[in-house]
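Input record (Table S2, row 261):
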Amino acid sequence: MELVFLGTGAGNGVPEFYCNCRVCKEAWEDPRYRRTRCAVALCGEGNLLFDAPPELSSQLLREQLSRIDCFFLTHAHHDHCAALGDLELYARFHRKERLPSVMSSETLEELQSRHGSVEEWMDVVPIQPGETVHRFGVSITAVEVAHSRGTLGYLIDTRAERTAYLPDTGPLPHRMRDLLTGIENLILDATFWEENWYPGKHLAFEQTIQTARELNVGVLYLTHLSMHYGKPVTSQEIESAIEPYGGKVRLAYDGLRISLG
Ligand SMILES: [Zn+2]
Ligand SMILES: [Zn+2]
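Output record (zinc ion complex):
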């Protein structure tokens, strides 16, 4: 089973069409440093997609993923659900059946108020923090995070490894800590570098690392990186900053794949 990072950027992405900072220049010069908005896919017996950012279609084409068997949504912010229209076309005209989907009931309500009756093409199982669903031999548990109303993260248990995907969160609620302690992989919000504009809703680099240390996780993957909100920081500078952690802290990139047994 393999987990693919489809996108690793925060709400802005790197580069932005209207920005000329040194982070955007790094990404223009070397495509490896480009970051589309945040999503991951777990590919095994079935393909599980987590989030639907604006670039979803090009991300799936890039990774040659032509099938989605179940869709998990963290929350209804633009950078995570802008491609719902693409999923609707896929469900209605290709699958010709509703797309099995998992999200919180708050997120479902928000989608319904914004997009109308999404249940015409989505077969939604609402999930609460701490609840687990089983899909294609994988157990997925909803994790409460600190972000917007009803936002979830997901703990993915493939039997061989436990991996938490928590792209948008401030300091984690204490009651979720037991669930996440000692897991093999933590994919965590590292939106800000130095100054944190939204300390209740996102993490900054040092907090991300501190959280992983407190939870004693195997490997921390930094994701949802804004790179140029506030003081710009290049990927090469982050690579230097994480060097002392000797592989226990890794910088996620678009297209990075990790094996989950
Ligand atoms: Zn920039
Ligand atoms: Zn986000």
